Amino acid sequence: MNVSQIKLSYDQKQNHLDGVTTTIEKGKITTIIGPNGCGKTTLLSVISRNNMPQQGSVTLEQKDIMTYKAKEFAKKLAIVYQQNSVPQDITIEKLVAYGRVPHQQLMKRNVEEDEAAVNWALSATNLTQKRTCKLDALSGGERQRVWIAMALAQKSSILCLDEPTTYLDIFYQIELMELVKKLNKEHALTIVMVLHDINQAIKYSDHIILMKDGKILCEGAPIETVTAERMKEVYGVEVIIQTHESVGTYMIPLSI
Ligand SMILES: Nc1ncnc2c1ncn2[C@@H]1O[C@H](COP(=O)(O)OP(=O)(O)OP(=O)(O)O)[C@@H](O)[C@H]1O
Question: Ligand 1 in contact with 38 (CB < 6 A)?
């Protein structure tokens, strides 16, 4: 996916995305990081066609994403938002089955294919045992997996996640990041996500995009992108970055 010279302004005064150009590599985990309000979610919304930029383009498989029909695009890319609202009394399997809508035509439905996709999505997210439960009977971590399962049932090759670990305790955060890694490694999904936790970004990403004020400040492999100087410049925080042979590279925030 090629993102080229994107400019987007919500108010016609300030560019909330200001000339953003990058390439999202197929089969890799790309994470967008940066301070509050720098444009991370806006960039994700442009990539996922939920916001139309005033300038620039995004191409996928050599085609401008705006030229895809809605259902066609949904088969290529699925997005999980930070907050989702649905009636609580719907069963998990019914909810996940909504992910199949892009594959269904008015008079023609492949029931077996739909069932297989839902079963796969439930199993990949470890929700098979919970399929007949209602959403309100699930924990926060399980609910987040339901949204991912719904996106997986879409059977798209790109999965976008907006701050997937927000509101989760540390156990469910790790569980979710491990799920993301598994989906990437075992099912060859291209992942594009927004994270606030820099250590999670370092640990789980192939590629990090560091944003500031609507621009990409730098991007690359985690250890090349997350440096003490840049964390000071972007977040205004003094940090130490260390590498331990069994833990890998990690960051310790010290002071502001
Ligand atoms: N729908 C909107 N209408 C007007 N302004 C918006 C809208 N959405 C976002 N903005 C503004 O655009 C800027 C970028 O917002 P965005 O949500 O992309 O940032 P972010 O980096 O994801 O922030 P956060 O880390 O706080 O989620 C912010 O200044 C925000 O107030």
Answer: yes
